[in-house]
Design a protein that fits this description.
The protein has helices at 6-29, 63-70, 85-94, 98-101, 123-133, 135-138, 142-147, 197-208, 230-233, 243-268, 304-307, 333-340, 357-362, 429-442, and strands at 38-44, 73-79, 152-157, 171-172, 213-218, 275-281, 308-314, 322-324, 328-329, 366-371, 385-392, 395-400, 410-413. The chain is an alpha/beta fold. It has one domain (38-364): Alkaline Phosphatase, subunit A, CATH 3.40.720. The strands form two sheets. Strands 1, 2, 3, 4, 5, 6, 7, 8 and 9 form a nine-stranded mixed beta sheet that branches. A four-stranded antiparallel beta sheet has the order 10-11-12-13, covered by helices on one side. The longest helix is centred in the middle third of the chain and has 26 residues, at 243-268. The two termini are 29 Å apart. The relative contact order is 0.16.
Length: 448
């Protein structure tokens, strides 16, 4: 594993071990459980922010996530940092923006003369993917930090970082072996669709070892292929505008069922009150009514349909259940989890603790970025940049990055125009300029 210096790494490990001992001792003296809480992340894959019962969808049935929302601190205006799976998932795990952790895209550049369909057989492409994965070695990850405190962690589902070990997980399903389909999850992609046993077995193993645990449950659901069980598709055949939409709706319900199975397992093992459950989607999705693909202004776009997601935090008896419409970001999850466990976030993490109302209310803007699907240069984030964006209260500015994008600057009032149909950048020129300045202050990609 690449490190900036073995001496500083050893010092960090020693420091964190001492901090862990202090945390356990302090909690025990306070009369609370001497065992730190467990962490379960449940991450939807390609699901629109409104496609839940608790978010107001009139047809899609998500009873288990609806219940989770009622039991959680529920942020209805959460945002992914980017509307593409790999960079977004990396931001959840590291608490960093894509331009910081370096994983801006799903795939590396295509070598000259190599078609996309042949890329996984190209030695140059596979070497570039390994170099791209190497960014994880230099980034902080929640799993790696918790590992120094005695946590066991399990990767199950979507995972673009090679072997699960590269993300700091102690256990996992993904090998990252290209010969076994190791692009974005290989064996891990079976979770949910083919049952939950690997996750349940891991939790039982951690309990036998009396170790706190973290679960990364990120199934490829409701992600395409949309092939739900017939019993679920039957719920929507006559209700949806098209068969393709019915299939997608059924996939959302199937995913909801698997989340319910995991939550039920925590109940059965009497772990519910000792487990922080976190829920969100990696990015949005608007179903094309005619084919198994996404429609415009959703995935890979800078619009709400691609970026917005509910974010739920549940720990009964510890986190008060309520709802908030304050914009928050997935980069907030890593510092929130670590702070909840009594640990200091890595200094590179700039998100806020979502359980700290003052911190959440005091932040005025949430930022993000959109990159090309295949990176242009895996070591230069700006080379692949298409858009930067900012949400400031009800206002949202989308700033194209030249020369990859030539369209206009876009400004929307999300309170009156949640569908982002009326660009107010010219009518609200001073506001647009102020938000553009804020974006440039946040990340100026053209600075030498």
């Amino acid at each position: 594993m690449k490190r900036r210096g073995s001496g500083s790494f050893i010092v960090a490990v020693v420091f964190t071990a001492i901090a862990s001992v202090s945390w356990f001792a302090g909690r025990a003296r306070g009369g609370e459980s001497a065992s730190p809480p467990n962490v379960v992340l449940m991450i939807a894959d390609d699901m629109a922010y409104g496609d839940y019962g608790f978010m107001g969808h009139p047809r899609i049935r998500t009873p288990r996530l609806d219940r989770l929302s009622r039991e959680s601190l529920s942020f209805r205006r959460g945002y992914a940092t980017s509307s593409l799976c790999s960079p977004s998932l990396a931001s959840i795990l590291t608490g960093l923006y894509p331009h910081q952790h370096g994983i801006t895209s799903n795939d590396p550049p295509l070598p000259p003369g190599v078609a996309a369909r042949d890329a996984e057989r190209s030695p140059a492409f596979l070497a570039a993917r390994q170099a791209m994965i190497g960014h994880f070695d230099l980034a902080p990850t929640v799993a790696r930090i918790l590992g120094t405190r005695g946590y066991l962690s399990f990767e199950a589902g979507k995972w673009w970082g090679g072997s699960y070990e590269r993300g700091g997980f102690t256990h996992g399903m993904t090998s990252g072996d290209p010969a076994k389909g190791g692009r974005h999850g290989d064996q891990g992609l079976a979770i949910g669709r083919r049952g939950m046993k690997p996750v349940f077995d891991f939790i039982d193993m951690a309990r036998e070892r009396k170790a706190p645990f973290m679960v990364w449950y990120a199934p490829m659901m409701p992600h395409s292929p949309h092939n739900p069980p017939e019993r679920l598709l039957a719920l929507y055949r006559d209700q949806a505008p098209s068969l393709e939409i019915a299939k997608y709706w059924a996939m959302c319900t199937w995913f909801d069922e698997t989340c319910g199975q995991l939550l039920d397992f925590l109940d059965e093992r009497k772990l519910t009150n000792d487990t922080l459950v976190v829920f969100l989607a990696d990015n949005g999705w608007i179903q094309d009514p005619t084919a198994d693909r996404y429609a415009p202004r959703s995935k890979q776009s800078p619009y709400e349909g691609g970026l917005r997601t509910p974010i739920l935090l549940r720990r009964p008896g510890t986190i008060a259940a309520r709802s908030s419409d304050v914009p928050v970001s997935e980069i907030d999850l890593a510092p929130t989890i670590l702070t909840h466990l009594g640990l200091a976030p890595d200094p590179r993490m700039t998100g806020v603790d979502l359980l700290d109302d003052h911190a959440v209310g005091g932040r005025k803007m949430v930022f993000g970025e959109i990159f090309t699907h295949n990176a242009v240069d895996i070591n230069d984030p700006a080379s692949s940049l298409r858009f930067r964006w900012v949400a400031a209260g009800d206002w949202k500015l989308i700033l194209p990055h030249r020369p990859l994008e030539t369209g206009p600057i876009e400004l929307y009032d999300l309170k009156t125009d949640p569908g982002e149909t009326t660009n107010l950048a010219e009518l609200q020129a001073s506001r647009a300029h102020a938000l553009e300045v804020a974006i440039d202050h946040w990340w100026p990609p053209n600075r030498p």
